[in-house]
Specification:
Number of strands of chain A: 4
Oligomer: heterodimer
Strand content of chain A: 15-25%
Distance between the termini of chain A: 31 Å
Largest sheet of chain A: 4 strands, parallel
Radius of gyration of chain A: 15 Å
Mean pLDDT of chain A: 94
Radius of gyration of chain B: 22 Å
Distance between the termini of chain B: 67 Å
Order of helices and strands of chain B: EHHEHEEHEHHEEEEHEHHHHH
Structural class of chain A: alpha/beta
Number of helices of chain A: 5
Strand content of chain B: 5-15%
CATH superfamily of the largest domain in chain B: NADH:ubiquinone oxidoreductase-like, 20kDa subunit
Shape of chain B: globular
Low-confidence stretches of chain A: none
Strand order of the largest sheet of chain B: 2-1-3-5-9-10
Largest interface: A-B, 30 and 33 residues
Helix content of chain B: 25-40%
Strand order of the largest sheet of chain A: 2-1-3-4
Number of domains of chain B: 3
Shape of chain A: globular
CATH architecture of the largest domain in chain B: 3-Layer(aba) Sandwich
Chain lengths: 141, 324
């Protein structure tokens, strides 16, 4: 059976979610592998959310926020950036492919870019193996 | 004549542990008299010569309270954990290893194969050209010899059996143990099953007396030996990783009052699921750098992020082992 990667995307309400909405209202087609979770700000994305998404079997996690300098709350997207870089270091140390975690800035007008981003990320993940983490993390009795 | 209240039956056992938890029990000092007045120690390998078969011979729920310290690393630990669960009314996971996996849990960064190769082939003091490794069963002329099987994963006690209470710490503060013990002896109302006892619910930072200046401008991280701290400002603000933001109160800020950053042995408070995730969040908030390359340069000072954030809690973390 063909491997269909599952992506969990955390999108900030002010820019990226609106951008994804624009992709929809503009009738742009993109891969259906992504499940979007709207958050108030990319600074709200707790690393716990990311780890939990992977733990429950997500093949990729996508973080999107406003472009640098455009954050509705001024600094939230920089916090997201620092958490993302630290998470990547951590994932690498845990033997997990850090390419499975992606951060991109999407503004409210970038519906097309969002669609392309989902397509390219889906493609990258399709070329990889399905994430084995769910089985490995099961506690054996 | 006054009828005497029946004595409590108390057991203390160690799984994969260093022995420090057993010593912390001994640290009750003269209160030990209060303990033996109210309780009979029926099983305590560090101090008494009770055999496993004596435990097996006990009826179910015979022991009132068992303090189980240490993680579950091999088949012996697992067998005794299950046995004691069956024989005990109140099973307490005592100390960081039983609570969250503790220091032995750091072995989840490796596999059984890697550990055996390192110990029995590669270590500097080993000469083993035939690559002999321990077998859990070995047949000799007299019969079969057996030693416990070494597992690939280290587990906390709660991942193996049903645990009534968790008493954190490496080792737990003896005062907390006395409080918990007195609560059981006096028949005080006990908290709901599965609770963490003998510890607070807030984070270390809530009790910390160090100055917090809100001056969150870390430009470099230091390991504790690389810098002389000023004895009064928040460790994190000076660029020294302190696990305070992700660690439960209960120890009385012991390390911080001794001018050493918190290492996180009490584990995360109730509202934090994963101490490492919380630390990543806290660290990101303490930097002001905005350029990805510069941020990475600062983050590269963190030599062993996973080992630092999960020093005592790897087996209970969301990512409970390294992926292989």
């Amino acid at each position: 059976m063909e491997f269909k990667p599952q992506i969990i995307a955390f999108l900030c309400k002010w820019c990226s979610y609106t951008g994804a909405d624009l992709a929809g209202t503009s009738r742009i087609e993109y891969k259906p592998n992504v499940r979007i979770i709207r958050v108030l700000c990319s600074g709200r994305i707790d690393p716990t959310f990311v780890l939990q998404a992977f733990r429950q079997g997500a093949d990729g996690v996508l973080l999107c926020g406003c472009h640098p300098g455009d954050c509705h709350y001024q600094e939230g997207n920089y916090r997201c950036l620092r958490r993302f870089l630290l998470l990547q270091n951590y994932l690498e140390q845990m033997g997990f492919e850090k390419e499975r975690l992606k951060l991109e800035w999407i503004s409210a007008s970038e519906g097309k870019q969002f669609a392309e981003l989902v397509n390219s990320f889906t493609e990258t993940l399709s070329e990889m193996e399905p994430s084995k983490i769910k089985n490995i993390m099961e506690v054996l009795h | 004549m006054e009828t005497k209240k029946p004595k409590l039956k108390l057991a203390v056992y160690w799984g994969a542990a260093c022995g420090g938890c057993c010593v912390s029990v001994l640290d009750v000092h003269e209160k030990l008299f209060t303990v033996v007045e109210n309780a009979d120690l029926v099983f305590w390998p560090i101090a008494l010569d009770t055999k496993y078969k004596d435990i097996e011979a006990m009826p179910d729920n015979f022991i009132d309270v068992t303090l189980f310290n240490g993680a579950v690393r091999n088949s012996e630990n697992e067998h005794i954990a299950k046995l004691l669960r069956q024989k005990t009314k109140i099973l307490v996971a005592y100390g960081s290893c039983a609570h969250l996996g503790g220091i032995p849990g750091l072995a989840n960064f490796s596999t059984k194969k890697e550990i055996f190769e390192r110990i029995y082939e590669q270590s500097e003091s080993t000469i083993n050209p035939e690559k002999t490794k321990p077998q859990s069963r070995f047949t000799v002329a007299e019969g079969v010899l057996e030693i416990p099987e070494f597992y690939n994963d280290v587990r906390s006690l709660g991942q193996v059996v049903d645990v009534d209470y968790f008493l954190p710490g490496c080792p737990p503060q003896t005062e907390r143990l006395v409080e918990v013990f007195l609560a059981i002896v006096t028949g005080a109302e006990l908290p709901p099953k599965g609770s963490v006892v003998g510890a607070g619910t807030k984070s270390q930072c809530d009790e910390c007396i160090r100055k917090k200046t809100e001056n969150k401008q870390i430009t470099k991280f230091y390991r504790p030996w690389e810098i002389v701290d000023d004895d009064e400002t928040c460790f994190m603000e000076q660029g020294i990783i302190c696990m305070g933001p992700a660690t439960r109160t209960g120890c009385g800020n012991r390390c911080i009052l001794g001018n050493a950053p918190c290492r996180g042995c009490y584990g995360p408070p109730d509202d934090i699921k994963d101490s490492g995730a919380k630390m990543m969040s806290a660290i990101a908030s303490n930097l002001i750098e905005k350029d990805p390359q510069e941020i990475n340069k600062i983050l590269n000072d963190l030599v062993d992020p996973a080992g630092t954030f999960y020093r005592f809690s790897l087996p209970n973390a969301i990512f409970r082992r390294k992926l292989v």
